[in-house]
Amino acid sequence: MARKTNNGNVKSARKAKANSVASQSRPSLRKSPREARPGKPRGLSNRRAAEEAEIRALEARIRAECSGRVAATTSTANAGQGPALTGRLFRELPISERTLRGLEASKYVKMTEIQSGAIPLALSGRDILGEARTGSGKTLAFLVPAVEYLYRQNWSKMDGLGSVIVSPTRELAYQIFQVLTNVGQEHEISAGCIVGGRSLAEEQHAVANMSILVATPGRLLQHLDESPGFDASALLILVIDEADRILDFGFQETMHNILQHLPVQRQTLLFSATLHNSVHRLGRAALRSPEVISVHHNAKSRTPETLKQIYMVVPLEKKVDTLFSFLRSHSQKKTIVFVSTCKQVRFLYEAFRKLKPGPAVMELHGRQSLTKRMLIFQQFMERERAVALLCTDIAARGVDFPAVDWVVQADCPDTVDSYIHRVGRTARYESTGKSALFLLPSEKPFVDKLLQARVGVRAINAKQSKVVSIQQKLASVLAESGDIRHLAQRAFASYVRSVRLMKDKDIFDFQALPKAAFAESLGLADAPEIGAEGEGEDTEHNKLKKRKNQSALQRLKDKIREKKQAGKQAPKQDEDTEEELELDQPPSSKKKVGKWERRQRRIAAASKAGLEPAKEAATEEDFLELVEGQREGLESQAVLPIKKRLKIRKDGSAQASRQHVFFTGKNGAKASSELAQLADELRAEVSEKGESRASFLRRVQDDLATRDSSDAALSRSRIQKRHQTMRRKERAAKGVQDNEELDCESESPPPSPAPQQTEGSLEDSVPKRKAASSVSKIASLDLEDLEKKALSRLGGLFA
Ligand SMILES: Nc1ncnc2c1ncn2[C@@H]1O[C@H](COP(=O)(O)OP(=O)(O)OP(=O)(O)O)[C@@H](O)[C@H]1O
């Protein structure tokens, strides 16, 4: 049985037994299994003798059943017509009992199309270029031949590296390795997984003894270059999974260097759900007259038929609200959310952790440590529902999370191929799934590209009533936490930069991005600058530049905010601390609670986040509505109006520039409400006269807004004048002249000093009762004044 070592490698507990025998001779390079075997002495035990007999029988069967050449492109008979499984059993293949037991223990009995197409050819020693839809079982299509080849060669650790599987990401490498340990559990073959992010020295000790390695390209090359005793010169079989991604990731050079270390005479298998031209180019360099197995070549759709795909047109400034609302409406689902950059993941994760959309949120991106990535990966695998994984494209390829209900692409992918891989994280194998793509209005041409590539998507709108605005909440979160504000700035900058760097300028229009509104939607006061370097980040240089361009008022506000935040600054967490790994609702620490209690908790959480609890129960059907009058798959105008709200920051300043800002003086508050009442009355009157309600409303509101502050100042000066007049009259009644009074004052004991009159502290200069009556009088005076002016204007308009 295989056992795991500390560094995650798997070794056979009994592999040493055969080593001494195997090391006596190495198989010659690029021999067919049949040719390679005779030079290799085998053990003498009965079991070994039985295995020898089995191997001989297998080789005979492979020659008879698998060696016939096939056409350059093979499409299976029922390509794309039905379930992934064919009627063919693994047991029918010429493979060892050990592998069969491993497959059956993992519940693999029947083969999928790509397996039944590729495995027999691979067993016969052919090079293969294999293309099949996401989730169609490509992993077994290359693992079974890889294990079998080594078994038939009686390969041991003394022979060096016999088989290597190259994967573009650590997560995928880890997953392939897990499948390998299941399928190969009965074999006495040592296997390991080597990926970046671990100690090279620790791995160096182990790799020299490995017969099969699953590796990321960079780390593999590092070992080939630097690890003493690591010998790949006798390699039998090279597998490149997600070959196109390996090239996209810029691993071309690395792959070519790796190939320099490998024998020319070897078998090579190359697999992906999307094989494009660059893969064929690599294929020419790495493969010898390959068989092209393209299972879904003639299928109606390039994506699984059990996948329902929709898209929504979401303006950039509504994206975060829409994503939050989507998760809230699908709180019991298992969802993967893709965004363009690590920094967006970081920000959304921290923000959503605070605002709690409903499902537990998790984050996965390339800036996490390996340990953390693996932990999150494992945790998301194990969660069955009520969880949302926010991630970058590192989780887009190959990873096989079970039972994912929804894939949401919050940012448009760079290519159709990326789209196909992302949505492929759901509807895997025989299960169903759904995907939603958010497109900016300027990105709508991407739909045509999808349709041209045989990817059917339907236009859907989000129901307006189900989209909640979290902008105000985000602004508060940012005001409270300097760290999250910093993340928001970085998320903004990295997204904008990513759009600018996109190659497809027909889809990605950097100029069309509503940057200020986008920044506001993230809770930021204004858009961070996007410069050539250190873009949008809080570098000293950027801060200085920003300050220079700001108004004096803005600078003062920022200063106050910074001071406040300095007081509240939470202790900074180390990026890789274990606390950060904890989920919002870790399943292990959860006590079993009743339905009622769960609901109460949900309500409490929702009200804490300032959200109405009733909405939390909304279902996906409540959230989505089909765009009417649209042909399936065609573009639509899916606009998502979201209620405009007055955004008041913690420091009291209003956020949106076109908002009506109320006068905040003690008298002003009253005046404002009365003015609003007047405006209402006038509106009713005007609608009778037939003026457009909207234009009138705008006019009166503008008028009121500009007048609020000047009226308040006017009121104060009138009160002052009236008081002075009253005092003068009182004195005149007493027969005292102003100058006499002054003289008197200098001679008599000094009266208590008159309070200084400052703006907004009018009542302090007069007795309280008097002040109150004055305020109401002044307010009504102003109203009369305004009313007269408004009516005279209306009279002019409607005369
Ligand atoms: N023959 C089979 N019988 C039952 N389940 C299978 C079989 N083959 C594969 N599966 C299951 O189907 C799922 C998808 O398989 P796999 O990850 O190999 O797909 P893939 O084609 O490599 O997908 P991707 O293109 O996304 O990498 C896995 O959960 C796997 O266990």
Automatic annotation (TrEMBL):
Comp. bias (Basic and acidic residues): 555-565
Molecular function in Gene Ontology: ATP binding; hydrolase activity; RNA binding; RNA helicase activity
Domain Helicase ATP-binding: from-to ranges: 119-293
Swiss-Prot/TrEMBL keywords: ATP-binding, Helicase, Hydrolase, Nucleotide-binding, RNA-binding
Intervals of motif Q motif: 88-116
Name under which the protein is recorded: ATP-dependent RNA helicase
Chain intervals with Basic residues compositional bias: 589-602, 718-731
UniProt xrefs under PANTHER family: RNA HELICASE (PTHR24031)
Described function: RNA helicase.
The gene coding this protein: DDX10
Domain Helicase C-terminal: 319-475
Family, per entry: Belongs to the DEAD box helicase family.
Catalytic reaction annotation: ATP + H2O = ADP + phosphate + H(+)
UniProt comment concerning the protein's domains: The Q motif is unique to and characteristic of the DEAD box family of RNA helicases and controls ATP binding and hydrolysis.
Matches recorded under InterPro entries: DEAD/DEAH_box_helicase_dom, Helicase_ATP-bd, Helicase_C-like, P-loop_NTPase, RNA-helicase_DEAD-box_CS, RNA_helicase_DEAD_Q_motif, SPB4-like_CTE
Polar residues: compositionally biased ranges: 1-10
Region (Disordered): 1-50, 530-619, 705-779
DEAD-box RNA helicase Q domain residues: 88-116
Enzyme class: hydrolase
Superkingdom of origin organism: Eukaryota
Pfam families, sorted: CTE_SPB4, DEAD, Helicase_C
E.C. designation(s): 3.6.4.13
